[in-house]
Amino acid sequence: xxxxxxxxxxxxxxxxxxxxxxxxxxxxxxxxxxxxxxxxxxxxxxxxxxxxxxxxxxxxxxxxxxxxxxxxxxxxxxxxxxxxxxxxxxxxxxxxxxxxxxxxxxxxxxxxxxxxxxxxxxxxxxxxxxxxxxxxxxxxxxxxxxxxxxxxxxxxxxxxxxxxxxxxxxxxxxxxxxxxxxxxxxxxxxxxxxxxxxxxxxxxxxxxxxxxxxxxxxxxxxxxxxxxxxxxxxxxxxxxxxxxxxxxxxxxxxxxxxxxxxxxxxxxxxxxxxxxxxxxxxxxxxxxxxxxxxxxxxxxxxxxxxxxxxxxxxxxxxxxxxxxx
Length: 325
Description:
With 325 residues, this protein is an alpha/beta fold. It has three domains: 2-100 and 151-234, Metallo-beta-lactamase, Chain A (4-Layer Sandwich); 107-145, no CATH class; 248-322, Orthogonal Bundle (Arc Repressor Mutant, subunit A). It is 38% helix and 19% strand. The chain has helices spanning 46-55, 71-74, 77-84, 95-98, 113-119, 125-128, 131-145, 209-220, 238-266, 271-274, 284-293, 295-309; strands spanning 2-5, 10-14, 25-28, 34-36, 63-65, 87-91, 154-157, 162-164, 169-174, 183-187, 192-196, 226-229, 236-237, 313-316, 319-322. The strands form three sheets. It has a seven-stranded mixed beta sheet with strand order 1-2-3-4-5-6-7, covered by helices on one side. Helix 5 (113-119) crosses helix 12, helix 8 packs antiparallel against helix 9 (238-266) and helix 9 (238-266) packs across helix 12. The protein starts with a strand and ends with a strand.
């Protein structure tokens, strides 16, 4: 656990445990006391939160801004609203999840259902509904995120919205890709951006390649000095981040070109046959993790869906082939 003061107004809470699973929480000590994302009850308890607020000389929380509705970023939202009577700001697409009364586990609401079905075909619906498997996943899921409380009176955000916290103003950038409700928050005065999980080396599950490209271009068009991610132990200079975003745009072109070449040379191919032939855009640590978790299957699926939309590829009998070839 670590609390990093960025400046007099911004502070960054880095929760204990792995940064892959536990999201950062950002505190804005301005006239309107604000936090960006909430973490989960397991890592940000009420006692820990009170301790942080005392250190930061913040006696209350007036507002919570959610970057997207994955459980590690919003699980505490209802609890904070109940305890502090604070406002909740989120993208309009977040509302069905935040306001849901029953957060008991079910596969239809599971954030990574598409990932499981695509990456691990042996976990078909019948097997996933087996009581032993279902109860095990339900136990792990509930243990991880705790008992969430539904949120009410949500202030809807959209692309171009501005949020004033006093001296600080945050501009909302709608960046679907990691999820269909993802937003980034940009401070034009300090030229810093809070990206949530909208970074160019995480699996993008719920949306499309077109969404991802548009979101990346929206971010790189801004004048940025520092980027603050949803998961990481330190701030990132934009001079170091920008090359990753630019490389990502190029690598998506390369990945799709390699898929088209593979289909032209080797004929109809299943998703699992295409994955090893696809360009992997990431460094060694991510490559290893992606292979273990089969995340590259999701990337391949998203590329193929995009190529289908462009009319270049089609699917028949679970195999992809070039159209008009």
